[in-house]
Amino acid sequence: MSTFDDRHVMRRVIALAARGYGVVHPNPMVGCVIVKDGQVVGEGWHRVFGGPHAEVDALRNAGTKARGGVLYVNLEPCVHHGKTPPCTEAIKAAGIAEIVVAVKDPHRLVSGKGLSALRSAGVKVRLGAGRDEAERLNERFLTCHREARPFVGLKWAQSVDGRVVDHRGASQWITGPDARREAHRLRAGYDAVLVGAGTVLADDPRLTVRDAPGRSPVRVVVDGRLKITGGERVFKEGARRILITDRAKLVRPGPTIRRLLALGVDVAGLPGAGPYRPGHLLAVLYGEGLTSVMVEGGPGTLAAFVQEGAFDKVHAFVGPIMLGGGRSSLALKRPFDLRKPLRLSRATTKVFEDGSLLLEGYREL
């Protein structure tokens, strides 16, 4: 097929892959289209974590029509046994003649091995069609496996004048319901959400996904001084929960630690009572198998990640209100100079009906 046709088919592949948003992580979102004689004979996508991969889904839909066809997929097929058998074996068994792949899989168990296995079996392999779109779609998975750390998003909601808490200490609600639904949708796309103890004590958040489709993330609370009691809503039913605290408190667990352990909360330790460097927190989360984390607050926790440059993306909601006092969204100990600010690249905005907006951008490298 021509390069133009490759791009056209790969756009469909990526649209199919995106249907897995919020339900397949920590796996990547993957779509697949099979073309033969200029006609689509099979489509599929990775529908749920632990379920069949996109290639297998598409091959089942194509049946015998797949033989001699061209298989398009946005990520290199797996070559190892995980929760499902290797996709490379299914592709070879189906008699696929050619495969077009957008991006190589950086996972250490794949990383070029899938393409090599297919070439060795006589399947023609082409790489790179739709690369930019495929990179954006799976930026969290790809960053994690390339850099051995979770992808980090920072999320907050602020007034027009940059306040996240008013002068009385209240923080709900700065934005409207549409913006809050979007925040839940974003939350569903991350493996974990992280907050400090101050946010837990002040707001008693659940940190679950309620107003959007998708799974609730792992909930991570950082509390070096162990100010929480264990009775807060964030530690109750639902997704996995992790407390990161002073390692010394785990030697002889007190009533709070014992209560959390009884609730099934995982407890991880770092030296000292904090505040902990973001890099150390990310090392813990990477060791827990998490590919991405959205840091939701409070201001001190967010400031630490910004100050260290330990983030990839910003999700900043702005409500159409002004407060004139209260806490700033980012009270940095070492502010940036206007002549050399910490700049966001590839910035985009989305405006909601009530006037709230979402500004997103990436840390400029």
Question: What labels describe this entry?
Answer:
alpha/beta; 25% strand; 5-stranded mixed sheet; 16 strands
Write up what this structure looks like.
The chain has eleven helices and 16 strands. It has helices at 3-17, 54-62, 87-93, 113-120, 131-137, 139-147, 177-188, 197-203, 255-262, 278-287, 299-308; strands at 31-36, 39-45, 70-75, 98-103, 124-127, 151-158, 163-165, 192-196, 218-222, 241-246, 266-270, 292-297, 313-318, 327-328, 344-351, 357-363. It has a nine-stranded mixed sheet, sandwiched between helices. Helix 8 (197-203) links the parallel strand 8 (192-196) and strand 9 (218-222). The longest helix has 15 residues, at 3-17. It starts with a helix and ends with a strand. The mean pLDDT is 91.
**Helical stretch count?**
11
Number of E-state strands:
16
Biggest pleated-sheet summary:
9 strands, mixed
Strand order of the largest sheet: 11-10-9-8-12-6-13-16-15
Distance between the termini: 37 Å
Global outline: globular
* Strand fraction: 15-25%
Which structural class do you get from the secondary structure elements? alpha/beta
Kindly state the mean pLDDT as a whole number?
A: 91
User: Which spans have pLDDT < 50 for at least 5 consecutive residues?
Assistant: none
The Cα radius of gyration reads 23 Å
Order of helices and strands: HEEHEHEHEHHEEHEHEEHEHEHEEEE
What is the helical fraction, as a range of percent? 25-40%
